[in-house]
Prior knowledge:
By secondary structure, this protein is mainly α. Helix content is 72%, strand content 0%.
Amino acid sequence: MKAKDLRERSPEDLKELEKSLRTDYFQARLKNHTNRLDDTSTIRKSRRDLARVLTIIAAKNTGAATPAEGKAEKPAKKTAKAAVAKAPKAAKAAPKTAKKSAAKKEG
C-alpha cells in the first residue's frame, strides 16, 4: 500500500481502512500464536500499513504536511568565512594544551 494513494482518499475511507487493517493485524497475530500462520511477514506488513494510515489520518486532522509533501530543505553549506572564523579559536586552544602538558611534566 503506497502512501501516495492513501493521501488521495477521503477521511471516512481512511477510517474504514484503519478498522479493516486492525482486524487483519489482530487475526494475523492470533494465527501466529496458534501456529496456523504460514507467512509471518504479514504481521509486519499489516502493522506498517496500519501505522501508515494512522499517520496520514493524523496529518489530515492537524492540517500538517506529511513528510513526503513538505520536504525539508538541506542546510546551507559552510562558507569560507565560517572556516576562517573558526581558525583563530583553534589557535588560541593550542597554547593552553601546551601549558597543561608542561605543568604535568614538572609535577
